[in-house]
Amino acid sequence: MPLVAAVSGSFILVSVFLHAESLVVMNSLFARLAFAAIVGFAVEPITSNAQTQAEMNLHASRDFDQADGSLNVVYKQLIAKLDDEAQTKLKEAQRAWLEFRDAQARCESDLGARGGTMAPLIYHLTRTALTEARIKDLKRLLKETAN
Predict the structure, then answer these.
(1) Long-range pairs for 112-116: beta carbons < 8 A, 24 or more residues apart
(2) Could you give the CA distance from residue 134 to residue 127 in angstroms, rounded to a whole number?
(3) What is the CA radius of gyration of the chain?
């Protein structure tokens, strides 16, 4: 039975098969769903017409591109409100966070589907989820700097 999750408007389909080789995928998926619940993402039915793994991978990649674009907008808004010292610190933090995000996505992709066709899906889903969480963090900082 497929499990479906929506990450802040980005729709995801991940099928989980109950056999020993897929336990890592299941654990990764359950961790992602728990993470989504913690940061407030909704679990909704899928609306995408993706029928093949390649289509799901493409949709996930596009969802990430959209989230990354939103991240850049919020980041630029925040950086514009900061003094030079705070800008330097935010830039350092953002560079470190980007390295973490991509390394975490590579790790989850490898653990969940090393060399398999689901690997790109897991990679993009992880990057999207982490990016959505970072957007929330930056929006909070933006709100705090406005006060």
Answers:
(1) 112/24, 112/25, 112/28, 112/29, 113/25
(2) 10
(3) 16
3-state helix vs strand vs coil in the chain, percent to 5? 70, 10, 20
pLDDT digits (tens, 9 = 90+) for 129-145: 999 999 999 999 999 99
38, 57, 132 from 116: Cα distances, Å: 29, 12, 25
Per-residue pLDDT tens digits for 67-114: 999 999 999 999 999 999 999 999 999 999 999 999 999 999 999 999
Give the span between the Cα atoms of 72 and 69, in whole angstroms. Answer: 5
CA distance 86 to 103: 26
pLDDT of residue 26: 44
Give the SS3 label for residue 5. Answer: strand
The band of 147, judged by pLDDT with boundaries at 50, 70 and 90, is confident
Q: What letter would DSSP give residue 138?
A: H
Tokens standing for 29?
């998926």
Q: Of 107, 89, 95, which is closest to residue 145 (Cα–Cα)?
A: 89
Amino acid identity at 42: A
